[in-house]
Amino acid sequence: MRATFRNTVTELAGQDDKVVVVLGDISVYMFKDYWERHPDRFYNMGICENTLISVGAGLGSQGYRTFVHTICPFLTDRSIEQIKLDMCYNNFPGNIVTCGATFDYAWDGATHHAYTDLAVLRMLPGMEVIQCGSKKEVDALLRSQYNNDHQTYFRLSDHPHTIDTNLEFGKGTVLKNEGSPVTIMTAGPILTNVMEAVRDLPVNLVYFHTLKPIDKDLIRQFRDTEILVVHDAYGLYEAISEVPALRMHYHGLPDAFCGWYGTVHDIRKRIGLDPAGIRAAAMALIQDRSQAA
Amino acid sequence: MDAICEKIRSEILNISHKSGHGHIPTSFSIVEMLVAVYQTMNHDPKRPNMPDRDLFVLSKGHASLGFYCSLAAHGYFNFEDVYAFGAFDSNFGCHPDRTKVPGAEASTGSLGHGIGLAVGMALGARIGNSGKKRQVYTLIGDGESNEGSVWEAIMVATNLKLDNFTVLYDNNNSQGRCLPIPNPAERFAAFGCQAIEVDGHDLAAVKRALTVSTDRPRVVVCNTVKGYGCKTLSDNVYEWHRRAPKPDELNMLLGELHAGNV
Lengths: 293, 262
Known about the structure:
Number of domains of chain A: 2
CATH class of the largest domain in chain A: Alpha Beta
Oligomer: heterodimer
Low-confidence stretches of chain A: none
Shape of chain B: globular
Strand order of the largest sheet of chain A: 2-1-3-4-6-5-10
Number of helices of chain A: 12
CATH superfamily of chain B: Thiamin diphosphate (ThDP)-binding fold, Pyr/PP domains
Order of helices and strands of chain A: HEHEHEHHEHEHEEEHEEHEHEHH
């Protein structure tokens, strides 16, 4: 996804002289071509996440379309007040693009895990929140959202899915509609595991890349079903619950630091977010529903 | 004391009294700094969004009353407009909102934010511009400079060699009680800034410092006194940190101000 981000932003910068990239000493050499083409619109500013956001907001105040990019927890957790005040409260537009989604850096331990970014940023007035799941989504959503008057968050991952989805901002995708009384709702890269888990199960499957604004109309279509929310980051469950009176079931992060190192796949397996764990949760709900009936 | 500065201070007292709000001592300490900026920068109070204007960001947003009164003194609006200071639905809150106050370039309040925004504004003025650049000024406090983000912003500004960026540092010793910053001019110079130290209540000296040519970020360390202009305030800064004068106190403070009893 990062290479897609680089390619798309480099192309946009060639067309729009208001595009500015601000890096926190990450992805620097990946942007070498951009850097050489637009040296006055490329800043590897330093390991100073608070200031990356503030400076990005200041650039936004002057009409620039800024992409501030570094590792997810450092930029979003550490700089939440700068995002809240310098970008959102001041209403200076700009784009935040992070790498290192949830357990992408599993081996580095919980200091490098991203649990809360989507949930917290979703609550900031004016903020658009996108949990990119595929490379196609990265490209399409960057193009459609980078130069509006909002503050937009793009969360990239090293483990994208390859499933075709609706690429329109704010729209979800029905990937399976079997008229089932059980619906799985999920978002972002973990769709790979979810699809593998439920492909042959009698459930509906609904997917989102945009967590704010969440596609409420689509959710309402399944309001009479049991909804199992499968997620690997806080934010989706809370977003879906904006639609009142749903029968929601939680299958996602535990209330724990998952600092077991290894890979994203190892951690997902331990907390039941591997295909087998997701399938078991879906089947349990199907079974409960059958018994209730 | 220059007449405009005395007028601003008297209105700060009046409005604080009427509204029941206001950080008076910290607003008093920056009056000459604000007047120096607005008498130096390229701006038009009748066209606050003039495209090529210079920019000023009050980073220590709690000194908003001093800021509003300075804007009023320079023609952005009337002093009477500020009488609703802090009131429900007023445009003039106890911290400035850029969407409500003509002349306010940023909404500030939480300390250590405005300076980073100002660095971004100064950088934006440089991109694609090899000619004359707009100047960007920000005013920070010594207490605010306990925040690490202040020093991050300074490092970035010096690394980028932002010669159109000026920090006015209100050295009013407000953090003497807690986490003081000794020798601030030396510190800013060590970070790579052009550091100039002046008497922050000498309007002419502050204005001269703002026009010294530089090839790097400029920091004007203004040695100031909290509550400058009223001895009662400067002798009792803790008691008056955030307090509005009662009627008899207002008359006493105005008397001290107009008598030049600083």
